[in-house]
Structure formats: structure tokens, C-alpha cells
Design a protein that fits this description.
The structure is a single chain. Helices cover about 25% and strands about 25% of the residues. The protein has ten helices and 17 strands. Strands 9, 10, 11, 12, 13, 14, 15, 16 and 17 form a nine-stranded antiparallel sheet that branches. The protein has a four-stranded parallel sheet with strand order 3-2-1-4, with helices on both faces. Helix 1 packs across helix 10 (about 295-305). The termini are far apart.
């Protein structure tokens, strides 16, 4: 196979993708436009990403025989979500180039390491404390105050693995509820009465070049992203601050790829990092239809060693997720000629499951 370290991958090279969800699907489509093939590795058959590629391995993430064959069949490996077992990445690292590198994944897939990393970089984040026992939970709540939020350090997304500790919460009951996850790790975080939540997506190439998408405003429904408004309704000062944080963290991570950084904007316009995701992000889907270069194309450019594209925003936009059965009547959205429909090919419309999205384009102001 082509040696990815020696420059840009030529057309026809194969990009290995760990994970087969909708982010992998849209990344594979972007890769195809640039002349690349994708090989998807995913435990689930008929994954959204595998539907748009000719190469797929269906195997568990701990199947070393399958992983070794996968590494032999691709020129570079990336991932479309961060909850890949780290042992999988460690197994692949000596066999094939990984972009982003293993250390980026190790940091970003663990909330405590993520917070420690931001703190070491003097990047403001929410107050937090590690929790490994009932006594440490009590100390953390005393430090952070009520309300606060207790989370698992790994495998939490869309509100999973979280418990809100309110004024009347019994800490013994809370600990009894979460203690089974103590071996995974727990973190208590300050509850922020934020004005709004924003995210910034930044790409960084192997040469250190960085390109950034405009900050966007995110609204959630039952902890799942519901709608993204582009651009975020914040001051230029706040926007510049958020972009500066994103650029700094991408460099500090020595990222080659893409990272999405979710942030809180407080009522006094402080910007606090909440979470990082080292791959394309739900809040960046609008870029497919409203930017010179989409987040997915930018992701593939970085991973393949190509020059980064312009992230210029060509229009304003509102991205609406289609959750569960909302996708069943999704074609009606096309009655609006400004609407762009994207469905992910998922067979079962479970409640809260991301089935697709609609981006409505608006004139740039």
C-alpha cells in the first residue's frame, strides 16, 4: 500500500474508517469525490457508511485477525467516532498510519483527561473533580456546589451516562445508582447556567496548517442535538475568543484531522470548553450545503495529506436533525426549495435515533 507519511495519498488510495455511522457515510462520500476509496471497519452489518463503499469488514473491535487484515488493506486509518476501544488503536498503530494519532483519541475519549488537558493548556473549562468513591462524590459536590452533574468519563453521548445532582438529591442514592460505573471512571462537573452553547470545528493538516469553520449555535432536545443555527448569535469578541481556543487546542493536540469543540457561552460572555470530538460533528452538517469546503471534505483532505480547503461560509443556515420517526415524512421538507435533505440509510427509526437532517439555506447577512 501507499506510505501515507510521504505526502498526499494519490487518487485510488484506501482510507480505513473505524466506525460505520452517518459521519463515516458522509466522510466516505466526500472521499469518493476526491478519488479515494474507503474501507469501513464496524461490528454492525449494513452500517450507513458501508452502504456507500465497496469495502467493509464486519467484525468486533477486538478481533486482532480481522484488524491485521484491515491494516494490510488500507493506506491510512481514521475514525468517525471516538468511542473506539483504545486497545484497537494501539493494535493498529504499529501497522498503519493513524490520523488523528492515538494520543488525540486517548485524550478526547475520556472527559477527565480532556478537562485536565484543557487546564494544562490554560484553556477555561467548567469546574470539575474526579470521583471514585462515595466520599469523593461528597467532596466534589461540596467543591462545585449544587446543582452539578455526575458523568461517566467514557462512552457518554447524547446525554447518556449523566446524573443531575440537585438541591434535594440524596448523595447516597446517587452513588448507589452510579457506583457500577466507577470502574469506568466518573467525573463531577459544575452546572453552568449558560446563555447558549456553541461549537467550533477546526481542521489541521500534517503541515500544521489550520482552517476553522464559523462558530455555530446549538440547541438540544432531551440532551440530543436538535438544531444548529449558523452563524452563532454571539458578538465578534466572543466569536474571536472561541476560534482562538479552537486553533490553540488543535495545535496543542498535534492534530492531523478535524476536531469539534463544544463550548458554553456564559451570561457574562465567558467561553468555557465543554467537550472535544476528534472527528466530524453533528453541528457541522450544514457545511455540506453552505460552505466552499464541507467539514467532511476538510476531514478527508487532512487525513489524506492534501492541502486544506477554504471553510468560507457562503450562506446562513439552520440544520434540523431528524430523530426517530421524524424521518418518515422527511421528503416533505423538500417543498421548501431552500431545503437540503440528507438521510442516513438506517433501517430502524428508534426514538431519539439520528436518522437524517435537513439544512435550510438562508441569505448570508
Amino acid at each position: 500500500m501507499v506510505e501515507a507519511e510521504k505526502g498526499a495519498l494519490p487518487p485510488g488510495a484506501v482510507i480505513g474508517m473505524l466506525g460505520g455511522g452517518q459521519l463515516g457515510r458522509m466522510s466516505a462520500l466526500a472521499a469518493a469525490a476526491l478519488g479515494y476509496r474507503c474501507h469501513v471497519y464496524c461490528p454492525e452489518p449494513d452500517s450507513p457508511a458501508a452502504q456507500v463503499t465497496s469495502r467493509a469488514t464486519v467484525a468486533p473491535y477486538d478481533d486482532e485477525t480481522a484488524l491485521a487484515a484491515f491494516a494490510e488493506a488500507v493506506d491510512v486509518v481514521t475514525y468517525e467516532f471516538e468511542n473506539i476501544p483504545f486497545a484497537t488503536v494501539e493494535f493498529l498503530a504499529p501497522r498503519v498510519p493513524l490520523r488523528p494519532g492515538p494520543e488525540v483519541l486517548r485524550i478526547c475519549q475520556n472527559r477527565l483527561r480532556e478537562k485536565d488537558f484543557c487546564t494544562a493548556q490554560e484553556v477555561p473549562t467548567t469546574g470539575y473533580a474526579a470521583v471514585a468513591s462515595a466520599e469523593e462524590l461528597g467532596a466534589a459536590v461540596a467543591k462545585l456546589g449544587r446543582p452539578c452533574v455526575l458523568k461517566t468519563v467514557q462512552f457518554g453521548y447524547d446525554g447518556k451516562g449523566q446524573v443531575l445532582i440537585g438541591p434535594n438529591s440524596d448523595l447516597d442514592e446517587v452513588w448507589a445508582e452510579v457506583s457500577g460505573a466507577a470502574d469506568v471512571g466518573l467525573i463531577a462537573e459544575e452546572f453552568i447556567d449558560f446563555r447558549l452553547e456553541i461549537s467550533v470545528i477546526v481542521a489541521r493538516g500534517a503541515d500544521g496548517a489550520r482552517e476553522i469553520f464559523v462558530p455555530v449555535e446549538n440547541h438540544h432536545r432531551e440532551h440530543i442535538l436538535d438544531q444548529t443555527i449558523v452563524p452563532a448569535r454571539v458578538s465578534e469578541k466572543v466569536s474571536d475568543k472561541a476560534e482562538g481556543i479552537a486553533r490553540h487546542l488543535a495545535g496543542a493536540l498535534d492534530l492531523v484531522g478535524l476536531v469539534a469543540i463544544e463550548m458554553f457561552v456564559t451570561r457574562d460572555d465567558r467561553v468555557l470548553v465543554n467537550e472535544m470530538a476528534p472527528r466530524p460533528h453533528n453541528s457541522g452538517h450544514w457545511t455540506i450545503d453552505a460552505c466552499t469546503t464541507s467539514q467532511f471534505e476538510q476531514f478527508i483532505r487532512a487525513v489524506a495529506g492534501l492541502p486544506l480547503g477554504s471553510p468560507e461560509r457562503l450562506a446562513n443556515a439552520v440544520m434540523q436533525n431528524l430523530l426517530g420517526e421524524e424521518a418518515l415524512g422527511a421528503q416533505a421538507a423538500l417543498n421548501d426549495p431552500r431545503a437540503k435533505l440528507h438521510l442516513y440509510g438506517k433501517a430502524e427509526a428508534r426514538p431519539g435515533r439520528k436518522m437524517g437532517h435537513v439544512t435550510t439555506i438562508r441569505p448570508k447577512e
